[in-house]
Amino acid sequence: MAAPPAYVVDLGTSTCSLGYAGDDSPRRYLSSTYSTSSSSTHTKSDTLNRDLEACKTPNLRNLFSDKGDLDGTREAALSEYLEDGLGYSKSQRDKPLMFVERSSTTDAQRQKNAEILFESEGFPGLFMARDAVMACYAVGKSTGIVVDISGSRTTVTPVHEGWVEEKATLTSPVAGDMMDIKFKEVLDGLNGKEALPKYLVSAADPEDVKETRGGEYYDLMSMILGRQAREMVGKIADFGYDPEDEKNQTIIPQVFKLPDGKEVEIGIERYESGEMLFGKDCTERELTAASSSSLSPSPLQNLICDAVFKCERDQQAALLSTVILSGGGSCVKGIQERTRLEVENIIHTHTPGWRVKVLAAANPERRIASWLGGSILASLGSFGENWITKREYDESGSSIVTRKCP
Length: 406
Prior knowledge:
InterPro entries: Actin (IPR004000), Actin_CS (IPR004001), ATPase_NBD (IPR043129), Heat_shock_70_CS (IPR018181). By secondary structure, this protein is α+β, with helices and mostly antiparallel strands. Among the domains are: 7-137 and 369-404, 2-Layer Sandwich (Nucleotidyltransferase, domain 5), CATH 3.30.420.40; 176-275, ATPase, substrate binding domain, subdomain 4 (Actin, Chain A, domain 4, Alpha-Beta Complex), CATH 3.90.640.10. The chain is built from 14 helices and 17 strands. The protein has helices at residues 72-86, 107-120, 131-138, 176-191, 215-233, 272-275, 284-291, 300-309, 313-320, 335-347, 363-367, 369-379, 390-396, 400-404; strands at 7-11, 15-20, 28-31, 34-36, 41-42, 54-56, 97-101, 125-130, 144-149, 154-160, 163-164, 170-172, 254-257, 263-266, 323-326, 358-359, 388-389. The strands form four sheets. Strands 3-2-1-7-8-17 form a six-stranded mixed β-sheet, with helices on both faces. A hairpin with a 4-residue loop joins β9 (144-149) and β10. The two termini are 30 Å apart.
């Protein structure tokens, strides 16, 4: 009889994906943002329907602060996400957990996370997987440059034969959230006034607008409206795009319907948010905000090339031949070809013979690439000996994570 499947969990910056090994998609998607009130914290799937409450997006992949102190709020949120997403209480968990984590997570943080997952959450087995490696596995590769455009950051990670090249990993704050905010501003401009998110507009009467605006929840829902528009009608411009070029002034506009029923026509404006990724359309305000995050807002093509050049010379050509796009922020038309041409424009100035190939799965798979790679890995019959069992953990302590989970 086949062994029962493992749980696979990827707690991203925008969406938490939870399901079983061997599945093509998660069983549950939960928002990574939870709402808080003076009386309780809500992390269930109805978070986005809660009005007038503060919203927080914790880094659930790391339950501890930089100082090593346990963050009780994160631990409580993780516990609820696991129970609600997997559908099993702690006492019912009889399957090992494939826990997808950021590739930059330190050994100390990984060990402390393992303590929580074994001792507090009660999993009988555990494997802690690097998200970049899992994104490679999702497209059948073990070597490549993984470009993960999440909500809060863009991370470029070289992976060589299943191992993360940590010294070459680079990060930028220009990512999905910043593009979504930009697209929301585009909608506001075309609408002639602020485009209201859906929860402020009565379904029965679009003219019946609720009074309350502002606050963290309002900002979140406004950003989600921008994301919906970006993914539906947004596009990455062709290489060499010039907004002043006459041919770009005559493109056929596309229609986007706002929550209040009004339709706006989006022409050349559809390119604005995507240009931010390539360092071409960031305003001074946006660059200042990006710089305040302590991350460098470098153009995407520079991040990719710089990460490659930080690796060993004999690895570089192979890495460039497998550039892998992942994350929800990469789900926009035209990004695959534009990325290839921008990188080639840099690389071919000194190594014209190198071939640049960009891999991008369909949007649904691209959005969950790390989870999907974890599902594939955990379902392999040969993977069984890689699980850290509760017995091994009890005998060796949390340091076993460093040895068994590269």
